[in-house]
Automatic annotation (TrEMBL):
Residue positions binding Mg(2+): 252, 261
Protein name per Swiss-Prot or TrEMBL: Protein nucleotidyltransferase YdiU
Cofactor: Mg(2+); Mn(2+)
UniProt organism field: Aliidiomarina soli
Record has Methyltransferase as a keyword: no
Enzyme Commission code(s) on record: 2.7.7.-, 2.7.7.108
Length: 490
């Protein structure tokens, strides 16, 4: 591969970005570097854990190929519309291409104030950088569409939040940083030409198969449909692994269907349908079980932006878009059913399986069963007639449910060995648990010790494996270890 960069985002209206330079830092030091990702992007090895790389990923000295800009967007934040947000602490440097020719944004996050900082310092504390590095790379490892972490560096400077915290910069890689809020920004400005250019760019960047649709309105309607499908698959994937994004604002909803912005996110320990971790989500708007409804709401906001492009007649455009929006709950339900059924080893999920899945989740909640281990250990309960494992001891109806599950599998004619194989490959043993991440952050804050970070990162590289050296990372928190609140880094 030959390393090359492009800057296609700059073809959008000038209102969509502002040129901005990173603010130099005092004493940049390496925290982590993602060598496999760097290799796939053909990043020259002159940047791999070198002084030149440290200059690049700290923003202290950018190479000629970097053309840093901060991106503009709007967004509904907890349901309240803000017509201009934008990258308040991030800079898009360039676009790289991987070995398959797919283009990716490379962005510094925490590199100093931008024209969109709204009085903020544009910096990031070390804790959120460590969290995003661990979680985004874990999600990539288990096949969840996500942004990636290319590098993390310490700045040698303090960042003031509730207290003074050490600063850091994350280099983030994404299929793009386009989001629902990108469209909302142009709609709020009344820039219909800009809306069309952004829609065409989104098609070209992420949905090139739609370019063969000659009718403009039908193409933009198909774009809405394609984004809805990507988001439905993404959010149901989150649900199937017990992940709570924590801040599903429209400015955090990507058009590529990737998980973006790992702020106050968390994985569930013991299952509770209405679980919330984000300290700022006081009313549970983005609780675990509310994520499908919020996705529905966010896609309706995207549809509003595309109405002028779908048809010149407002009533016609509204009807066409409404038909797609009204069908979202059914699409989400079907995607959720497929993913959750697979976790039970079912090779052909049926509509009536929904009751079986919901009964298990209710049993988990009643028995305070750990979501991850509860599904992981189910494979050991296949064709078992004896007392269930101790993990399920608090579930009063688990034995009856297990009988019904086994009967369902036997009636399908599916070999139990096949069901077990399916379950072993989709139910993880290990997740980045909140208390473990907190321990990593505390060690890094207390004495600059990154060994816990490196150990957890290593354990998460194979989340299905049974390995004695990783046993400590498989366990749910004891009561004194529980983390009930997570925080954003801004």
């Amino acid at each position: 591969m030959t390393f090359k960069t492009t800057h296609s985002y700059l073809q959008l209206p000038e209102s969509c970005f502002q040129v901005c330079q990173p603010t130099p830092v005092a004493d940049a030091q390496w925290i982590a570097f993602n060598q496999p990702l760097a290799a796939s992007l053909a990043l020259p090895e002159t940047y791999w854990l070198t002084d030149e790389g440290l200059d690049l990923f700290s923003g202290n000295k950018l190479p000629e190929w970097a053309q840093p800009v901060s991106q503009a967007y709007a967004g509904h934040q907890f349901g309240h519309f803000v017509p201009q947000l934008g990258d308040g602490r991030a800079l898009l440097l360039a676009e790289f291409s991987d070995e398959d020719g797919q283009r990716f944004d490379v962005q510094l996050k925490g590199s100093g104030p931008t024209p969109y900082s709204r009085g903020g310092d544009g910096r990031s504390p070390l804790g959120p950088v460590l969290r995003e590095y661990l979680l985004s790379e874990y999600m990539a490892r288990i096949g969840v569409p996500t942004t990636r972490a290319l590098a993390a560096v310490a700045t040698g400077e303090s960042v003031q939040r509730e207290t003074a915290e050490p600063g850091a910069i994350l280099t983030r890689v994404a299929s793009s940083h386009l989001r629902v809020g990108s469209f909302q920004f142009l709609l709020a400005k009344g820039d219909l030409d800009g809306l069309e250019r952004l829609a065409d760019y989104t098609v070209q960047r992420h949905y090139p198969q739609l370019q063969q649709i000659d009718d403009d309105g039908q193409r933009y309607l198909a774009l809405l449909d394609a984004i809805i499908e990507k988001q439905a698959q993404l959010v149901t994937h989150w649900m199937s692994i017990g992940f709570i994004h924590g801040v599903m604002n429209t400015d955090n909803t990507s058009l590529s269907g990737e998980t973006i912005d790992y702020g106050p996110c968390a994985f569930i320990d013991e299952y509770r349908a209405d679980q919330v971790f984000s300290f700022i989500d006081k009313r549970g708007r983005y609780a675990y079980n509310q994520q499908p409804a919020i996705l529905h709401w966010n896609m309706a906001r995207l549809a509003e932006c595309l109405l002028p492009l779908i048809d010149n007649h407002k009533e016609t455009a509204l009807q066409l878009a409404t038909d797609l929006i009204n069908a979202i709950p059914q699409r989400i339900s079907a995607a959720w059913l497929e993913r959750m059924g697979t976790k039970l080893g079912l090779n052909a999920v049926r509509a009536e399986d929904k009751s079986l899945i919901e009964r298990l989740l209710q049993s988990f909640e009643q028995g305070q069963v750990d979501f991850t281990l509860g599904f992981y250990q189910l494979a050991d309960e296949l064709n078992k007639q004896t007392t269930p494992a101790a993990l399920y001891a608090g579930c009063t109806d688990f034995s009856a449910w297990r009988d019904d599950w086994q009967q369902r599998l036997s009636h399908s004619g599916q070999p139990l060995s096949e069901a077990e194989s399916t379950m072993r490959t989709c139910n993880v043993r290990r997740i980045p648990r909140n208390h473990q991440i907190q321990a990593v952050i505390e060690a890094a804050y207390t004495d600059g010790d990154l060994r816990p970070f490196n150990a957890l990162h290593a354990a998460l590289q194979d989340p299905f494996a049974t390995a004695p050296e990783f046993d400590q990372f498989d366990q749910p928190p004891a009561d004194p270890q529980r983390v009930t609140n997570t925080f954003c880094g801004t």
